[in-house]
Design brief:
Shape of chain B: globular
Strand content of chain B: 25-35%
Strand content of chain A: 5-15%
Order of helices and strands of chain A: HEEEEHHHH
Structural class of chain B: alpha+beta
Number of helices of chain B: 7
Number of helices of chain A: 5
Number of strands of chain A: 4
Distance between the termini of chain A: 44 Å
Distance between the termini of chain B: 80 Å
Structural class of chain A: alpha+beta
Oligomer: heterodimer
Shape of chain A: elongated
Helix content of chain B: 10-25%
Strand order of the largest sheet of chain B: 2-12-4-3-11
Order of helices and strands of chain B: HHEEHEEHEEEEEEEHEEEHEEEEHE
Radius of gyration of chain A: 21 Å
Largest sheet of chain A: 4 strands, antiparallel
Number of strands of chain B: 19
Largest sheet of chain B: 5 strands, mixed
């Protein structure tokens, strides 16, 4: 949700008065004919939900939300599982492990907030930052995957040890 | 028949690359081909063109504009919505910026000949161009996805030459050095003011063939916030960067009329590049029109943010 909001795929504008465009909710689908992949950056649909809320995500934005959302959800579920079982393998020893936990979400939110960040930095610094933006979501996804695999492995080992 | 995994991967990769490649092949900025002072300036401009992010036509022009009656449009747009207005074939037409901000170019025809109503959100400028090239060929225009001085760089669909909107001269490609014909008479005002003056007019419809969040503004408070995002070649601190001036250019000379101040003055005889003109404040539309004093024909004069006007016209005079 936050990702869509910052990526401007979800716009909340109390002054918009979208019901002027017709009965709400109203859905406008993007025409699919004669598309190249670059056109997939266009909104897949526009959904005027209320007088002040419109959703217009592109296919990549929808996929990003689904993939990152699923990974964050799986990581969260694994975390809950670890807390419930309290296996000794999940004790981290108090090191700076929280950075590994926070980094994926930081990267994901940085990538979608990038235009705002660039506005704050100004055009001079933008050049240095803009080149890394395309890699940020994949890196965040990889980190989330890695974190998920690592947690799953430790939990599994604990379960095996407990069973033995 | 068996297809190897490697072949399948290569074929998929090639298909992906082909699909990702821009469908429009625009001329790249190459080594300078200087041939005199004018050529040097074109080279400098060509080399200063930067990517704005989207691919060619990633901001898709409206190719088949449809129009609504004022009664229908009044249900959709508030009276304070900004519109660019222009008379096409004797019919007053309004182009809501809540639509054109997503397309930047409306390819139209007037008198059976192509014209383009172009709007750059980063410089706040709307100019109307003839789609007739100097050699007689007719063309529509696309968005290149590139910027010069933070301003829309268009390309013509016939030769793929690049034309910065506020420069109006091709800086790359076959038509390099050629100037497009600007068509005067376009005025930026509010929907409420315009429909009161032109009750028989028509308004660009949201049925553009594209799905966009019409009614929202993707640039946030850019129009009023200080600072520009993309580099500009020349800057001047006489006015705030985003202050609206009315720009007029003739025979290589340029004049800026600060719009708000001119509202008090109402009318002024001006001379730009030896051309005798008169600037008039239209109280009904809250807009400045500029006419040729001899023919009383409107000349191209348009609202534009000060930073952009100065970046393109560093020798501009300012009407005081």
């Amino acid at each position: 949700m936050l990702y869509l909001l910052v990526a401007k795929a979800l716009v909340i504008d109390p002054a918009a008065h979208f019901s002027r465009f017709g009965a709400l909710p109203s859905l406008v689908l993007s025409p699919l004919s004669d598309r190249s992949l670059t056109d997939w950056l266009e909104p897949a649909f526009v959904l005027y939900l209320t007088d002040a809320v419109v959703l217009a995500p592109s296919v990549p934005a929808i996929l990003t939300v689904l993939v990152l959302g699923a990974l964050v959800g799986a990581n969260g579920a694994m975390g809950v599982e670890a807390i419930v079982r309290r296996p000794p393998a999940c004790a981290t020893g108090g090191g700076p492990w929280w950075i590994a936990a926070v980094l994926p979400s930081f990267l994901a939110s940085f990538s979608c907030c990038a235009p705002t960040v660039l506005l704050l930095l100004g055009a001079g610094a933008a050049g240095a930052v803009i080149s890394v933006i395309p890699f940020v979501v994949p890196v965040a996804a990889l980190l989330l995957l890695g974190s998920l695999a690592w947690s799953a492995r430790r939990l599994e080992r604990t379960t095996v040890l407990a069973a033995a | 028949m068996q297809i190897g995994r490697r072949r399948l991967l290569i074929a998929s990769g090639a298909a992906f690359a082909a699909a990702c490649a821009p469908r429009v092949d625009l001329p790249a900025g190459g080594a300078p081909a200087a041939s005199g002072a004018a050529a040097d300036e074109l080279d400098q401009i060509s080399q200063a063109i930067t990517s704005g992010g989207p691919p060619p036509d990633g901001i898709p022009p409206v190719e088949k504009p449809a129009y609504l009656s004022i009664a229908e449009a009044s249900k959709q747009w508030k009276d304070d919505a900004l519109v660019d207005t222009f008379t096409v074939d004797g019919q007053a037409r309004a182009y809501p910026r809540f639509i054109t901000v997503w397309h930047e170019i409306v390819n139209e025809s007037a008198g059976g000949k192509p014209i383009a109503i172009t709007y750059c959100p980063l410089t706040g400028s709307t100019l109307v161009f003839s789609g007739q090239l100097a050699d007689g060929r007719a063309t529509s225009f696309g968005t290149s996805g590139m910027l010069y001085n933070s301003n829309l760089v268009m390309y013509d669909r016939v030769t793929k030459s690049l034309w910065p909107q506020l420069f109006g001269v091709a800086v790359r490609g076959e038509r390099r050095g050629e100037r497009l014909t600007e068509i005067g008479g376009a005025v930026t005002t509010t929907f409420g003011r315009w429909k009161a003056k032109f009750p028989a007019g028509v308004v660009l419809s949201k049925e553009t063939g594209h799905a966009r969040a019409y009614g929202t503004w993707p640039y946030g408070d850019y129009d009023s916030a200080p600072g520009v995002i993309f580099p500009v070649r020349f800057t001047d601190a006489r006015f705030p960067e985003k202050k609206l001036v009315v720009g007029i250019r003739a025979n290589g000379a340029a004049l800026a009329i600060p719009k708000d101040e001119f509202a008090q003055r109402r009318e002024a005889k001006i001379e730009v590049g030896g051309r005798e003109l008169v600037a008039q404040y239209d109280t009904e539309l809250d807009a400045v029109r500029v006419l040729d004093r001899r023919t009383l024909e409107p000349v191209s004069a348009y609202n534009v943010m000060w930073f952009a006007w100065y970046a393109f016209n560093p020798k501009t005079e300012v009407l005081r």
